[in-house]
Input
Amino acid sequence: MQAAIRALEKSVVLIEALGALVPAYIKHQQQQWDDHARHPSEWGRDNTLDC
Output
């Protein structure tokens, strides 16, 4: 997700095509990612976090 956000930030074509929507979309996606990263799912805790 972070790589996709960074790619969008650098995409001149998409920024020109979408204009003012891009900063708002990037902000929204970054907030979603931050929320996801702070709150692992129950499955993730049970199956991947072995510390």
Observations:
- The chain is about 80% helix and 0% strand.
- The two ends are 24 Å apart (CA to CA).
- The chain has a mean pLDDT of 87.
- Residues 2-36 form one domain.
